[in-house]
# Entry
Amino acid sequence: MSTPAATPTWRLVEPPRADRLDAPEAWAYHGIAALERAVALADLGHDDFAPRAVDLLVADRHQEHARRHRLVAVAGGEGDGPAPRVVGHGVLTLPVSDNRHLAEVRVAVLPEHRGRGIGSAVADRLRRIALTEGRTTVFAEVELADEPAPGSPVALAPREGPGLVSAALPGMRFARRAGLGLEIVARRSVLDVPLPDDVVERFAADAAARAGDAYRLHTWQDRMPEAWVEQLAALEHSLSEDEPNGGLALEAEQWDGARIRVEEAKRAERGQTLLVTAAEHAPTGTLVGMTILEWADDRPELTEQESTVVLPGHRGHRLGMLLKAVNLREHTRLRPAARRISTWNNETNAPMLAINVALGFRPAGGAAELQAPLADVVPLSRG
Ligand SMILES: CC(C)(COP(=O)(O)OP(=O)(O)OC[C@H]1O[C@@H](n2cnc3c(N)ncnc32)[C@H](O)[C@@H]1OP(=O)(O)O)[C@@H](O)C(=O)NCCC(=O)NCCS
# Structure
């Protein structure tokens, strides 16, 4: 006599898209946010990057430049009982303005629900969607709390650049079983703030002396000045073109003023503030560099360092350091209670890392950047 197969205690559903967090159908955004926070605390020891419910809602509302397919694995929630509990989350991000070959995959499962095939079922469904959408390259990221010791039997080196990743991490086992390869390692760095005023002044003054009189700096919050919005788009394009990404199959992003405005709207809807310092080349009146800090008021201790770029013809004048030091000085004035600034750099990006290390940023974990041709990605579900 054969034993009947155990009934799975979870099922996959496409979450409803709510437009407000207090709507009943927003259960999925609240559930995914709780899951991502629990996964981050368990795997990384902090939730600095875990998306809040509002981040998920705004990402789904704005699909102008990337479309999104979300799935959740839920337990319970049938009939008239309480809302379903989200135990697994998957999202497939499909760029549409550029990089139309890419499918970026994220899968996360609550630690106490792992090893039951939930992650595999989510990944397989997303893989089928990516195939239907005609995508050809898959990207995935596995976040790391730290690096394994060199020489450790589980230490895995990327195809390019420094950094090591433990092959024993659940996310790495999972991604490699699916056929993805480790291209590069991204470093997360943290700067403890506020820096003493005289330290920031010295960085700013030394860099200003090297930059000379040809550059004028401008600092503002939130909305990009209308006169510069197209030039800021050109800077974003340049950043995507020049950032060293190892062998990741990334093409330059197509930016224009309208895309800058979409990003601004998303930040405002997420309740985030932006602080920008840009460098104008005075003789020509063009913007040649910028740096952005960003924060949300419900995370009072944390600020994120976003894009920093200097156009190729203007590098070597310490503008990168000057922009960052001036923006940091303004950040201290606006946000004296912040305690850390967090940033990401590919380990292959030596020039940007050098500036961050000089400012005092210290390594604080990172991410494994994985990719594979979609045709080589193997289904994971058993049976
Ligand atoms: C990676 C992650 C999503 C996997 O979720 P999961 O639900 O445990 O995935 P699965 O259960 O399908 O597979 C995990 C393991 O269980 C095994 N497994 C799969 N189905 C199983 C089943 N029905 N019964 C028992 N074990 C099973 C798999 O073979 C796999 O084993 P391995 O680690 O030796 O390769 C989860 O560990 C996680 O959330 N990690 C943090 C986020 C992350 O790194 N995501 C990956 C990047 S996209």
About this structure: Residues 39, 43, 105-109, 114-120, 140, 142, 170-171, 173-175, 177, 380, 382 surround coenzyme A (CB under 6 Å).
